[in-house]
Structures are given as structure tokens and as C-alpha cells.
Amino acid sequence: MNTIAAISTPDAAGGIAMIRISGEDAIRISDEIFTAANHVKVTEMRGYTCAYGTVSDGQEALDDVVLTVFRAPHSYTGEDTVEITCHGGIYLTKRILMTVYLHGAEPAAPGEFTKRAFLNGKLTLSQAESVMDLIQADSASALRVAQYAKEGRLGREMRGISDELVDLMSALAYWLDDAEECPPELERTTLTAKLNSIDTKLREMSARYQDGLVLRNGIRTVLLGKPNAGKSSVMNWLCGTNRSIVTDIAGTTRDVITEQVKIGEFTLLLSDTAGLRETDNTIESIGISQAYQALDQADLVLYVADANVGMTDEDTELLEKCAGHHTVLIWNKTDLSDAAPPEMPIPVVQIAAIYEKSTEQLAAVLKDLFGQSAGASGAIPLNERQNLLILRASEAVRSGIEAAESGNELDMMYADLEMAASYLREIEGEDVTDDVIDGVFSKFCVGK
Ligand code: GDP
User: Fold this and answer.
1) How many angstroms separate the alpha carbon of residue 412 from the centre of ligand 1?
2) Which CATH number is associated with domain 218-374?
3) Which of 59, 324, 346, 441 could form a disulfide with 115 if both were Cys (CB 3.0 to 4.6 A apart)?
């Protein structure tokens, strides 16, 4: 493979920058442009060693750098790789990169280092995809999901299911070819029970995709409650700013205001909405209908009720509209009243929003509600591609179940199971086309 190079650090001035060179000429090119202070030649350096020295373009010295050598296959890409760490000036770094190009390297395409790691068997495709998630993770929960994927947890689980399918296919093949008696695992009820259990695992895995989105992108959260209950004050408590206008005139918040806030290990994508009440005011009623739309898409409802007023029938009715969403009752204005919150089967956080400083109580509730979303195994589909393949595999297994139930030809069922197993293998990048691989890595940044 040709030798590629790119700047792997951000395109901005910084303390240091790093240029990565990978391929069979990486060592030769580095040797031509680098002079070590201790006069050791790059060609003589062992893997995992570094040297301090100067990079020059042949005319003049460009910078003092540290150069690290990785020898194939013990590198990120699996190829000979050299990393040059220089001072982090944008112009300076680009001059060094240009010098590397002039000595024979070619510009790396987006994600090409990781693509080579995949092609050289250093990472599976789902592990390679997780690298972008690792880079983009902006909360503890998002980082955890990316790390689980990087450890290959999804792949292991999918391989387990694919192995079960292959075992069934071997038994089917045996029966189709030679056997006069049906092997016990292919008795119809045993077979359909087995396939149903595989399908359940696949559907559960696909359901976790949504949970993963919540952990990675943030929990879509709406603040609901009657006008004046204190929603805007709760929003300001969570954001730590006066983002929402707080007044004691009912109906002040007339549109949906969104903010991204970190609570404990989670990110909340918060929408403060118009208070929910019957109104003749046109603008306010648009706000209220937007509030209901936000509710439709919400992963979490923070329902704010005024402890000083107590729980009204209207509150109870509105809370019923939240059924099907994770809901937390925010029992607000506790500085004005000692009234205990009503007994309800949902978690309650008691606060006085205008005075409250800590979000620990809410963070603990969120951990209870969302902390187990990754499931015990931590295997979560990371993206549409993986989720779609799981859904397709599930469809193929269900078609196999139908064939088994209707006593259809066994070879048709064999084809269904083969199809399902191949979808699952595709998640890890086995038997995938170049288009699939290019599609995955085109979403990466240059230098990764
Ligand atoms: P919203 O209509 O639900 O958004 O309610 P606001 O946040 O605008 O609050 C309505 C009124 O209640 C304002 O005058 C707030 O200052 C007041 N308020 C909100 N939370 C508290 C609280 O915890 N204690 C007290 N005493 N007043 C509060």
C-alpha cells in the first residue's frame, strides 16, 4: 500500500501538533527529513522508541521535534508508522507535512489510518466505527458507550448469535444431504423455539440502539407543568443562568426554549415549554401545541408541580399524558410549603428552584432511570448501519420461523438462516463491499 500522511491533531494553533505517516515508505521518508540529536538513523530505530532531533526541508531546519517509530504490525494501522510531534503552529505543521509529501507520501483520506487498521485486521468494522464516537463523546455516558464498542462487546454478542445460526445450519445441511431421520434439534417445536429466542435477542439488541442514542447524544427532556408551577425557574436552576424569563404572570414562556446541560454523567437536551393550560391566546396556544410535540419526542419528562398549591386534578390529568415516557415529579417551591408530595409510582425530586444550587438529587434519579440502558453486556448498536443489519437479520430469522411453522422446504429455511448470519457478520465487516467500507470511513476526519 502507498504511504500516507496527515496532521492528526486539530487544525488550530496549540502547544504541540502531530503528523502521522503510515506505509512501507514511512521510515525511509522520516529518515530523509529528520536528523536525531544522538545521530541515530530512523532506519535503525526499533519500534516503540522515539528520538529528539530536527526536521528540515533540505534547505533549512523547520523545527525541533520528537519522532516516534512503530514497526509493522505493532502500530495503529498495522503498517510501519512514524509520528512526528512538533510545535503546534498551523503554518509550521503544514510546512513539515508538505516536506513529508515532497519525499513521497500521499495525503491521507478522511479516516484512512483507521481504515487501514481495519483492513489489516487490527480492528473490526464496529470497533473502527467506535473510534469516531470516542473522539466525539462529550459526557461520561457517551464515553462509556463508545468504550464498550471499542472493546468489541457488540461484536462478541453478534458472533454468539451468528454461531447459534451456523450450528442450526450445519444440522439442516446434514439432514438435507444424508440423514434419514430428523436430528432432534430440528424437531419443529425445538427449532421454532430456538429461532424465536434468537429473534428476541436481536430485537432486544435493536431496542438498545435508541437507549444508546440517549446515552450518546443526550436525553431529550421536556419541562412540563401548569403555568406558574416554576418550570422556567427549574430550567434556570439546571442551566445555572437566567435563560428562561421568569415572571409571575401565567403564560410568560410562549415558545420552546432548548438548552444542553450536564447533570451527573448525562447530558440533558432541555426544552422549557409553555405552561399547559386552556387558553384563548393564539400565540400561547401555538406554544402549548409545541409543548405537546416536544412531549411526543421526549425521552424524559420533568413534571413541575407547585408544592404550595398542591397536586391538582389538572396536574394528575397532565401527568397521565406523560405515560410511556420516563417521568420525574419536580415538587417545587418547598420553601413555601411543607406539604409532602403525593404518593406516585414515579421518582420525586423536592426543591425550591429559585434557591437550589445542587443537582445531585436529580443526577441520582437519572442514574436509576438511564444507568442500565447499556444492558448487562454493554453491547449497543452504535449507528444506523449496525441497527439496520440487526433488524434485517431479525427479519430473515422470522422468515425462517415461518418456513419452519408452515413445514416449507428446509432449503428455504437454510437460505433464511444463512442470510441472517451474513447480516450479522457484516456488522463486524466480514464479507462487506468496498462501498460499505468507504461509506463508514467517509464520516471520519482527516488524520484519524
Ligand atoms: P412557569 O410559568 O412554570 O415557568 O413558572 P416560573 O418559573 O416563571 O415561576 C413562576 C413564579 O414562581 C415566579 O414568580 C417565580 O419566582 C416563582 N417561583 C418559582 N420557583 C419558586 C420557588 O422554588 N420558590 C418560590 N418562593 N417561588 C418560586
Assistant:
1) 65
2) 3.40.50.300
3) 441
